[in-house]
Amino acid sequence: MSLFLLISLALSPVAQDRAVPYTAEVYAPPPVRPFEPPSNFGRVTAEGDGSADPARRPIVAPVVVEAYSRSYEHAPSTADNAYDRGVDNAEAAMDARMGPLDGLWTLRDTDGRLVMQLALMDRGSERPLEGAYRKVDATGGLGPIEAATHEAGRLSLTLTDARLDLTQTPEGWVGTLVEDSRSRNVALVR
Questions:
Q1: Cα(147)–Cα(21) distance, rounded to whole angstroms?
Q2: Closest by CA position to 117, among listed 131, 129, 128
Q3: Where are the alpha helices (DSSP H) in 43-144?
């Protein structure tokens, strides 16, 4: 009986008191897949290393520092280097697809004091700008950026209890933060 009640509660429409700022996205695999080695990865003999023993002896007793003649770690193998290069290339390709606003930002007033921190996710012009903020004042308020528009050197962000309007200049993003019907000049910097 309780299972029937749980299912009926899950399927019943629930009224929301306000609109949800973001739509829930259905999972899609990342545009840049993590490094996936080819089927012959690790079985190809590197040039010049064909006679080397790839297996290292197990450590069966504590090793004292004086026992090392050169390095404390073994040199990475060609497989290790190939894997690291693949991961680095996948990260660089994903970063290349992101827009110019992607990353962590700080909002400072005209005196250089920190007002808030922003984390923006700019997935290019075809996707909406998303993010979150954290105030550094005594309230320590935080939340999602409810609405964002970015077009032609202008950026407008609607926060839970404030609005941020910025214009791009050669020095960076400058504009006003309107909070509690009070406006102050601010600059958005990395």
A1: 7
A2: 131
A3: 78-97
Q: By C-alpha distance, which of 182, 151, 166 is closest to 118?
A: 166
Lookup result for tokens 């899609």:
28
Residue 19 scores a pLDDT above 90 = no
Beta-carbon neighbour count of residue 175 at 10 Å?
Answer: 20
Query: Cα separations (Å) of 110 from 86, 105, 134, 168, 184?
Result: 44, 16, 19, 16, 8
Closest-CA residue to 102 (of 129, 135, 126, 134): 129
Q: Which residues of 15-35 are buried (b: 16+ CB within 10 A; e: fewer)?
A: eeeeeeeeeeeeeeeeeeeeb
H runs (alpha helix) in the chain: 2-11, 78-97
- For 34-82, write each residue's pLDDT tens digit: 777 778 877 776 665 555 555 667 778 887 877 776 666 677 888 888 8
Residue 16's pLDDT is: 44
Q: For the chain, give the mean pLDDT.
A: 79
pLDDT recorded at residue 116: 92
